[in-house]
Amino acid sequence: MKPKNILTNWATAAISMATIVLASSCNSIFEDSNCNTSNNLIKLTYDYNLKKADAFDSEVEYVTLLAFDSKTGKLARRIDATHSQLTSNNEIRLQVNPGSYDILVWAGEYPDHFDIATGETGVSTLEDFHCYLHRDANSMVDDRLNLFHGMKHVELPYATEGKPNRTTVNLKKNTNAVRIVLQHLSGDPVVADDFEFTITDGNGWLNHDNTIRDTSPITYRPHFTHSGSVDINTNPTRPPGTTYSTTQALLPSRAVLGASLAEFAVSRLMMDNNPILTITNKKENRTVLQIPINEYALLVKGYEYADLSDQEYLDRQDQYNMTFFLDESGHWIKANIIINNWHIIRNEGPAS
Question: What does the pLDDT average to over 173-182?
Fold first, then answer.
């Protein structure tokens, strides 16, 4: 065989092999748009918390995933799924045309508490998918809330179903549990029904990028209250570096205290907002205490999480337990507060 023929036959074989590979990699080499389907697995995680451990399995029940074509800005695909419909690795299969996409995820237990637009494929944009918290005619909310948000820009080239693209969207928790304990140092009972507990904020409507869309005030009321007495250590671990002057009297190490608990669920705490906790003695029509939630929540941030910004700390910490003490006259003793197990000593006298 002549060298020329060998070269020609080899080139023909190479072209044939490339055609076979292309045909097996794409739907059809004869279609107008080759390789027109990208198979993708979008993994969802929730480790944006102080423990930095993935708690997705235990916290998320529903997922809405929205894929937007980055060139047109239009909705390309919407997927609604329950946790049981995800893969064992908490992945959602997404089939779209190859290209650039902006992925938006709302998740949690939101169907009864938050409104998310239905949208229309090829028409709706990211801005259409804000999240609105249900409230009554008086703008009050007293439900358990659970909402997560995630957003990511991704490149999704052609991929087969057997070898899909894989990408991870990490979620941020948008709801917080705030537990308020009111205790009487005399040991007298503190009846929850004798007090009105409220948190006011303007955070009930979130944009697609998780910013506040509307700051209209909302009043959060407890979804659970309870009264009783507790035997507690009233002088728990002091924050590192804390010192006390000899004029500061510490509480007894143990005491049986009358107590009431009020548990709230609130939407995302934002540094640009000023959520206010108010406790009112209904019988006396008197405000027992009124404090800014963010300021008090951040009192203990510096001891362990000084490297986090204030907003990141508020986003990663989703539970705030605050204990306040009443004196014999039923006034708040401002000098003694327990926040998330930290005993805060403040140089302030009792409220007048």
Answer: 97
